[in-house]
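Task card 7
Instruction: Convert sequence to C-alpha cells.
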Amino acid sequence: MASYTKAAQQWATFARAWYLLDAKMQPPGKIAAATVIRLEGRHKPIYHALSDCGDHVVIINTRHIAFSGNKWEQKVYSSHTGYPGGFKQVTATQLHLKDPTAIVKLTVYRMLPKNLQRRTMMQRLHLFPEDVIPEDIQKNLLQEIPQPRAVPKRLDEYTPEEVAAFPKVWTP
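Output:
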C-alpha cells in the first residue's frame, strides 16, 4: 500500500499545473521573468535542465501592460524576412495596436533558453488580451501567480472618507 501513495505523490510532483497571471499595469519584463520560471519548471524540486517538467501559464489582460518612461515610442522590435531589403522595424505602440499579446509573447520567447525545448515551452503559454478566458482553460487553473509590481489605486477608486482622512501636505 505504501507504493500506491508514493506513486500518487510522484504523479502529483510531475503533473502539469495551470497558473494564472494578471498582466494589468505590469512591465513585460517582470511578467516574462515570473512566467519563464513556471514554463521551465524551475519552481519544482525535481527540476533538471534536460527534463520537460514545466507547467502551463495563462496570462490575462495583456492589452493593459505598462512600459516605464517613453518606451512605447522608443522601443523598437526588429525582424528580417530573409530577402534583400526585408529588414522591418516597428515601435512598441504599433506592435501593440496590431496584436495586444505580441509584446508579452516576444518577451517571454526571448527570455526562455535558446534550445530545442523553447517551442514546446511556448505551447504551454496561453495569452489573452482581456480577462475573458475560455471555459476549458478556466476549469484547469489551480493557482494565481502574484503580480510582480503592486498596482496603486486610482484617485476615483478611493472613498470620500479615505480622501478626507488622507494627510494634507500643503494647505491653501
